[in-house]
Write a structure and sequence with these properties.
Length: 566
């Protein structure tokens, strides 16, 4: 069911607002769909401080740049006109395919299209592909970790056969999983449970209980965010160098320091305006520019991410810099969960420590990943060192977080050992299903998080971004093949190969991508929204139904319908 964009207002939707629209997302009551068992997710809007104020800043900057470009005169004669009007060839750079964003989805798409649009069918005009990246240089470090599931491994092999082995070398297999719960140990009230010394915070100490221990998940790889991007960058480089039909090097194709402000579709092209004042004329544009996509904002100005009422603090450090007793299990994950204490203060939530979960993982190449997520909305924002905006090395964050994890010696000790400078704070956001991933003129398409950013609880964000890249590559490749065959059919074709300057097949490829890939991701986004809001509200979900949907989301055939249950 289509979700009306009129429900998106203000800046970001909180998880309370998201809960209120669940009925619209699923088109039926949560008490009848088999997904909810126990208390329903509350739908009333609670008093709260404003959510992250990032969109106001972005919109103001975009308006200022567009206004400056309108009144700027490139040749002394076009003052006062819209920035895209009366442009001459000297005013812009021409490309065929412009990809916004050099993240995983953007680089994957460039690899696939470079392989498929250049080859034996050399009578078709080669495509000029360019990737426009906001950062001046590609980051060589990050504080994020990804799980590449078996479906993600399949997508990697479809993008380039060398990618699965390269990713395996840069990451590590998941061979062990430990899940623990933390509860309050009343017998040690006011004392430190490990040393017997007085707890300076006067808090109860906790008991850490192993809930589940397993051998991990076959075919799943844990890898650092920037390591995965470096794998794509490496494969793109030798894809270009090994293809004799491509004269571009990676330095030609990847253009940094270009942050998109807006775009304008015109006859036969789309014009792209960047913050540095440069203008690009493209046949099609692909918005792979992340959760805060400038492409999506231009496509639908009222469309905003939703905020789940949760904050994350992540860090990645060399494993040998940590004390041995706090390191992650080799090739493994340890999850520690605290669901709060509602026994004291008459169950007053405001007087208790917030609910939280923590992951301590091996992520390959002798590195450990740490994550702390606080899922109580008011307390998460109160702990933020940036009022929800996020950032790296925020002053005072570590001191604010240490008291709330005191119940777990493991989490407390690893957080204490981490330098505050490596802690990266971010709000947990997602996207509602879009009515379309295409612009009205059909020349601009959304990809990855810009199209279907989802709650990270599913562990599918990057996997599905790669799946969408594969779908886009396949649809454009198929449309090009059909166009080529049509041009060769002299009995039915009125267009020769030499006359296909407009690359009409590119638009057909984008249309096929939207029609064939988006329906599955619409359902998957609904599932992710449900899981994310349930984590924020402590609602209980039917494990059987969740299991069925989790199995379905790993299918790589987009034509397989979702489970009927739920």
């Amino acid at each position: 069911m289509r979700v009306s964009h009129s429900i998106i207002y203000g800046l970001l939707l909180t998880h309370h607002q998201a809960n209120a629209i669940f009925g619209r997302i699923f088109g039926r009551s949560s008490t009848k769909n088999g997904l909810t068992k126990g208390p329903r997710v509350k739908d009333k809007h609670e008093e709260q401080s404003p959510p992250p104020e990032v969109w106001g800043t972005l919109d103001e900057a975009a308006s200022a740049i567009c206004q400056a470009r309108r009144i700027q005169s490139l040749d002394g004669s076009n003052g006062g006109k819209e920035w895209w009007e009366d442009l001459e060839e000297k005013d812009y750079t021409s490309v065929d395919i412009a990809i916004m964003g050099a993240g995983h989805a953007g680089l994957a798409t460039a690899i696939g299209l470079s392989r498929n649009l250049h080859g034996s069918e050399t009578t078709l005009t080669p495509c000029k592909i360019r990737i426009y990246e906001r950062d001046d240089i590609l980051r060589k470090t990050s504080q994020g970790m990804l799980s590449i599931w078996p479906n993600g491994q399949t997508y990697l092999s479809q993008i380039h056969p060398d990618l699965p082995d390269l990713v395996a070398q840069l990451g590590c297999p998941l061979q062990k999983t430990i899940i623990c719960s933390v509860s309050v140990d009343k017998s040690t009230s006011g004392r430190n449970s490990t040393s017997g010394e007085e707890d300076s915070l006067g808090k109860n100490k906790g008991c850490e209980n192993v809930v589940k221990e397993s051998d991990g998940i076959p075919g799943l790889t844990l890898i650092r965010w920037h390591a995965l991007r470096s794998a794509f960058e490496q494969v793109l480089e030798y894809t270009l160098s090994e293809n004799s039909d491509i004269s571009d090097s990676i330095d030609d194709m990847l253009i940094t320091g270009h942050s998109l402000v807006t775009y304008q579709e015109s006859d036969g092209c789309v014009f792209l305006l960047f913050e540095n004042g440069n203008i690009v004329r493209a046949k099609i544009a692909i918005g792979a520019d992340g959760m805060f996509s400038s492409v999506r904002r231009t496509m639908n100005p009222s469309d905003r991410p939703i905020y789940f009422g949760q904050m994350n603090w992540n860090a990645i450090v060399p494993t040998d810099t940590l004390p041995e007793d706090v390191r992650a299990p080799i090739n493994g994950i340890k999850a520690i969960i605290y669901n709060g204490d509602r026994s004291g203060d008459n169950g007053n939530d405001d007087n208790n420590d917030p609910r939280w979960s923590s992951y301590i993982n091996d992520c390959g190449a002798n590195h450990t990943f740490f994550q702390l997520r606080v899922t109580d909305e008011k307390k998460a924002r109160a702990l933020s060192g940036s009022k929800g905006r996020g950032g790296l090395g925020l002053s005072g964050v570590k001191d604010a977080l240490l008291p709330i994890v005191k119940l777990s010696d493991h989490v407390y000790n690893i957080l204490k050992a981490l330098p505050e400078s490596v802690l990266f704070e971010r709000a947990i956001l997602g996207r509602l299903p879009a009515a379309t991933w295409l612009s009205p003129g059909g020349r601009v398409a959304l990809l990855g998080d810009a199209a279907h950013g989802m709650h990270p609880l599913l562990g599918q964000g990057s996997n599905q971004a790669l799946g969408s890249a594969v779908a886009l590559i396949e649809e454009i490749t198929l449309a090009r093949k059909n166009h080529y065959n049509h041009c060769l059919d002299t009995e039915t074709s009125t267009t020769s190969i030499e006359e296909e300057d407009d690359f009409v097949y590119l638009l057909k490829g984008l249309k096929g991508y939207d029609q064939n890939r988006r329906p599955k991701l619409d359902w998957l986004l609904r599932f992710a929204l449900l899981r994310g809001c349930a984590q924020s509200s402590t609602a209980d979900l039917d494990p059987k139904v969740i299991g069925l949907w989790s199995q379905w989301m790993l299918k790589t055939n987009d034509k397989i319908p979702p489970p009927e249950e739920g």
